[in-house]
Design a protein that fits this description.
Glutaredoxin; 1087 residues; 4 domains; Porin
């Protein structure tokens, strides 16, 4: 790392700079530390509730959600642990966020989503972060998914330190395995998974899972676990997971548990969904590709929403890619497509809200775009074909699920979240305020207006049309598979909700063609299709029979056509169909829907039995939830929701209901395993709190690796990183000790405070170099101590400014013992120099990590650092540096990477850049110093060579260290990288060597100089001044040699013996001559 430590401005790298990774101080890849930022737009005042198995943390506005969550998690705890066959080692910490956007302000994971060269052990933590998804129905499933995933990861990677160290050397587990089983436990056999699996098995040459998006891996993995449960039984899920925990191989665990070869198992999975396709296609149809008018352009992008304008001449839709989005508009006459608006930030390491942006037309050519930006929800009014836009804030609402302008654009309806609860609201555009429509704990979705009226239309899981029913108190009572359509008349105060449909399915996306005809989506038969409800006769009819579900649709009434989003080859596409081709039809229920219907009916039957047994207690409960009529609340003013307070004050009266419900729960225990009963013996669920959150430190990771230092050769590196649960406080320390124990050592300790908008850090670093000549008595020690206090000002997730004042001290000690015996008078064998300095850096990083040593995007760091003298032994100097890297994906499996590095030392005592060699070079060599150049490695009695603490080695392949030197350096490098794994056919390789193998071609060029630039015809390299002492004459010799060192060659990168290793064969090109190839073996990433 020590080259990196010669950059005084580096903050988190004190022990292994040759490995400095841009995302973290725990994992280093290059000398520069880049990394993205998390920006805090609000202060999070955390508190927590505690139960038998969980600690649920929340902040302002989330207490009611936290109470619901901890109760629901306890009710699901036995089912989840029994299904996967694993019990957690400790209580699970759940951190709840009121919205996905607020979760993106979390610091968890901001410093650690890249790779180390080896030797890193990550500590598995029993905690998860969950954002409120916008409604209770999906949120309770998200809770179970995240809890299950945490358990499976703890199961695989280890809940104790021995298992954690063991997992360091095991092969990485594929995404489909962990995410898939977690999704199956949480969601079961749902329609999204069913559509994805059936679409995948229809493809003639499907891509391997590792080439698909994370969402596709989750859904396909979920379908595999569903196949196991349906074919072999649910108990085999836990058997497979526990065997995988031992053998650390998912394929072996599946084949040994089920008794079939893994290849045959996968063929059986494909046959399972293929046969389902054959059955479904008997009454369903698949649209021809000729009706596709647009589609997603990459495997990671999805199409979110689409809207026709009122005239049907324009179709707007959104393309979403991991947080970054585009709003595109199609001219339906010419079919030309344009990008109307761009927004968002692409994020891979964070959860993103794929529901944003929302679209609603204001008039024929003006589109409203609802999104979340800089801590608030906004609607951007953008006119097609015109420059500029108007941005309006939407107050109070933390998350918006649906939005639609009323004709004229002065009023809009929306469904969104306030204080952790989803309701319907009106948005008064001119005033910039909102007014409440609903006020209960039911979920409201997909709101719109009936044409030419003040009636809103929406989807909800409420079972009653009463306005004054509070709704379910517990999440387990929230229906996630029964949503019906409702209306509400804004002109009638205290009116009831008009219930339009009454089915046991999810009905969504209602669009009123007129006051009588309402089109909507329903999964009543198992696949999301278009239905038509006529208000006059209250009859609903199925109107389409597409074999793959429709995600969203929009209607063009003028041209009598429909556009909708569906799936083709695991990608989203937009179809266009005439409404004339959509007519009343009936299809049979899919196998998935048949099982779901049986489960729903069984649950209804169970509740009816409970109703019979608990008539008295249920009657009391109804009296509690029925709230007397209250005046309609017009706006969301603080403290205005009195009905909520009224209901919650009486919740204690429902204890009799809970008591009665204990009987059937205990009956279910008869079918539970002995392990589950034993683990939960004698436990009575009690909830304590709220308590204030206090930071408690835990170990994040430990690194035990080695460094090949340019001066001290092989050295042992030890690093440890600790942080509190939320990673607002970080502590990073380490030491580096040469294996000969006689060349010095390094020690560093760093603390970071990341909770506020401005990040604060403090760091101490000590470096000690011992130079010794074994043939003489010469021996010198050079010490550097640095105390640094800094602040980082993030302007965006990509850009930040760092300012770090520091105090630095160097100390030179001549250890030649002859000086003790015969030291000349007045000679001092020890000197101390003190400096006061300031480091200022601008860091830009929008890169994305796509695999080992695979990046896309740009990284740049501009730095100025000054050292001002504080005592007579110090001489001031300064430094300016620029390191810019760009990574570009050319095509599948082909990447271009380029780097430009410039550095310059100035001041009265400029230091040197030593050009040549590579980081962590085994069997490295130094170039001998010639002519009048200073020797940076000079060891001479009574010679203070403290510059050795600041001189920096700069990479240039094909050359030895210090081939050129100077106070200024400039290098350019280019690489064509070919990761082999991306060229392999369909199977995912298990070999770590093959999986990480890359071939590359490269070209490097660079030069270094002290005074005359290499861009001049006469420069430091080709010009030498000859001065004869005592003579009045001097001469200048110019040999016209090329001042630029170049090299070209090929290389290989892979994981070898647990370390990411580099092999480069470089042909040096010096003074226009191609030299003999030089083989350089090293460890590390990038250039």
């Amino acid at each position: 790392m020590f080259k990196s430590l010669r950059y005084p401005f580096i903050i988190a790298i004190a022990a292994i700079g040759f490995l400095s990774i841009p995302f973290s101080s725990e994992a280093q890849v290059y000398r520069e530390e880049y990394g993205q930022n998390r920006i805090q737009y609000k202060y999070f005042n955390w508190k927590y509730l505690k139960s038998n198995n969980f600690e649920v943390y929340y902040y302002d506005g989330g207490e009611d959600l936290a109470k619901k969550s901890i109760g629901y998690l306890e009710s699901e705890f036995s089912r989840v642990t029994e299904t996967i066959g694993f019990f957690p080692y400790s209580k699970t910490r759940i951190f709840l966020y009121n919205s996905i956007a607020e979760k993106q302000q979390s610091n968890v994971g901001v410093k650690g989503d890249d790779f180390t060269i080896g030797g890193q052990t990550d500590f598995v933590k029993s905690q998860v972060e969950v954002a409120f998804s916008g409604d209770y129905a999906s949120f309770k499933e998200e809770l179970v998914f995240n809890f299950t995933k945490m358990l499976v990861e703890e199961m695989w990677f280890g809940g104790n330190i021995a298992e954690m160290f063991q997992s360091t050397f095991s092969s990485p587990i594929p995404n489909w395995f962990i995410d898939g089983v977690s999704a199956y436990v949480a969601y079961g056999w749902n329609k999204e998974m069913d559509d994805m699996a059936r679409d995948y098995v229809l493809q003639e040459q499907p891509a391997k899972f590792s080439k698909l998006s994370k969402e596709a891996n989750l859904l396909l993995g979920q379908s595999i676990w569903n196949y196991i449960a349906q074919t072999y039984g649910k108990r085999d899920i836990s058997n497979i997971l526990n065997l995988a925990r031992i053998v650390k191989d998912e394929e072996s665990s599946i084949s040994k548990t089920l008794g079939v070869p893994y290849k045959d198992f996968m063929e059986g999975w494909k046959a399972f969904y293929s046969q389902m396709n054959l059955r479904i296609m008997e009454s369903y149809k698949r649209l021809p590709e000729s009706q596709i008018i647009s589609g997603s352009r990459s495997k990671t992008s999805t199409i979110g929403h689409l809207k026709f304008n009122a005239e049907g001449s324009l179709l707007a839709y959104t393309v979403f890619d991991n947080g970054k989005y585009e709003v595109r508009v199609i001219n339906m006459d010419s079919r030309e497509e344009m990008v109307l608006y761009k927004g968002g930030i692409k994020l891979l390491a964070q959860e993103v809200n794929s529901n944003y942006p929302l679209l609603s037309w204001v008039d024929e050519f003006t589109l409203g775009i609802v999104a979340y930006s800089e801590g608030r929800n906004t609607v951007t009014i953008k006119r097609v074909g015109a420059k500029g836009e108007q941005v309006l804030a939407i107050p109070t609402v933390s998350q918006i699920q649906s939005f639609e302008f009323k004709q004229g654009g002065r009023l809009a309806a929306l469904t969104g979240v306030v204080n952790g609860k989803s309701d319907a609201y009106l948005y008064l555009v001119n005033r910039g305020t909102i007014r409440r429509i609903s006020n209960d704990s039911y979920d409201d979705r997909d709101i719109s207006f009936l044409p030419e009226s003040n009636v809103v239309l929406f989807s909800s899981n409420r079972p009653t049309d009463s306005v004054y029913v509070e709704g379910p108190i517990d999440l387990k009572d929230v229906s996630s598979n029964q949503f019906n359509l409702y209306t509400y008349d804004l002109d009638l105060v205290d009116s009831v909700y008009g219930k339009l449909t009454n089915s046991l399915s999810v009905e969504s996306n209602p669009i009123a063609k007129n006051l009588n005809e309402i089109y909507y989506l329903s999964d009543q038969q198992g696949v999301n299709n278009v239905y038509l409800h006529t208000v006059n006769d209250s009859i609903s009819k199925q109107m389409s029979n597409y074999s793959f579900g429709i995600k969203e649709f929009t209607i063009d009434q003028n041209h009598n056509r429909i556009a909708f989003i569906s799936t083709l080859d695991s990608k989203d596409v937009i179809y266009l169909e005439s409404l004339g081709n959509i007519q009343h039809i009936f299809t049979t229920a899919t196998p998935r829907r048949e099982l779901e219907s049986i489960r729903i009916l069984s649950e209804i039957r169970r509740k009816r039995l409970l109703d019979t047994e608990n008539t008295d207690s249920l009657t009391k409960a109804k009296k509690i939830t029925e709230v007397p009529k209250q005046p309609k609340i017009d706006s969301l003013k603080l403290g205005a929701i009195d009905t909520e307070n009224y209901v919650f004050k009486n919740e204690s009266k429902v204890n009799s209901k809970d008591y009665k419900f204990e009987a059937p729960v205990s009956d279910e225990g008869a079918n539970r395993s002995f392990l589950s009963l034993y683990q939960n013996r004698g436990l009575k669920n009690t909830i304590e709190g709220p308590n204030a959150y206090e930071p408690r430190f835990q170990t994040n990771n430990v690194v035990t690796s080695f460094v090949i230092d340019e001066l001290r050769s092989f050295s042992q590196l030890l690093e440890i990183q600790m942080n509190d649960y939320l990673e607002n406080h970080r502590l990073h320390g380490g030491a580096l000790v040469p294996y000969n124990f006689n060349s010095g050592f390094d020690v560093f300790l760093e603390y970071e405070y990341l909770k506020e908008a401005i990040d604060i850090k403090a760091k101490y670093f000590r470096k000690s170099i011992l130079l010794r000549d074994n043939t003489t008595t010469q021996s010198q020690r050079y010490n550097l101590n640095r105390f640094e206090l800094g602040a980082a000002f993030p302007f965006s997730p990509y850009l930040r400014l760092e300012v770090s004042p520091f105090f630095e001290q160097t100390r030179y000690i001549d250890l030649d013992y002859l000086l003790l015996l015969n030291a000349p008078s007045g000679i001092v064998a020890e000197k101390t120099a003190n400096y006061l300095g300031l480091n200022t850096s601008v860091v830009f990083d929008n890169s994305l990590t796509g695999g080992t040593n695979i990046h896309e995007g740009t990284r740049a760091k501009l730095t100025f650092e000054s050292h001002s003298k504080l005592n007579k032994n110090a001489v001031g100097f300064n430094k300016i540096e620029a390191d810019i890297r760009h990574y570009q994906r050319v095509t599948k499996g082909v990447y271009l990477a380029g780097r430009v590095f410039f550095g310059h030392y100035g001041g009265k005592a400029p230091k040197s850049y030593l050009l040549g060699g590579v980081d962590n070079w085994a069997f490295n060599k130094r170039e001998a110093v010639e002519g009048s150049e200073p020797d940076p490695f000079l060891l001479q009695t009574l010679n203070d060579n403290s510059d050795i603490l600041f001189n920096q080695f700069t990479n240039l392949r094909g050359y030895s260290y210090n081939t050129f030197q100077g106070s200024t350096v400039l290098t350019l490098s280019g690489e064509l990288r070919l990761p082999v794994n991306q060229f392999l056919a369909t199977a995912d390789t298990k070999s770590s060597f093959i999986r990480n193998l890359q071939f590359l071609g490269f070209y490097d060029i660079g030069s270094a100089w002290y005074e005359i630039s290499a861009f001049q015809a006469r420069n430091d390299v080709n010009t030498e001044e000859i001065v004869v002492p005592g003579s009045p004459f001097s001469g200048v010799i110019n040999d016209f040699s090329n001042p630029w060192l170049q090299s070209a060659g090929v290389g290989m990168r892979t994981m070898l013996f647990g370390f990411f290793s580099r092999l480069d064969l470089a042909w040096p090109i010096q003074d226009f001559n191609v030299g003999n190839p030089k083989l350089q073996i090293s460890i590390g990433y990038d250039f």
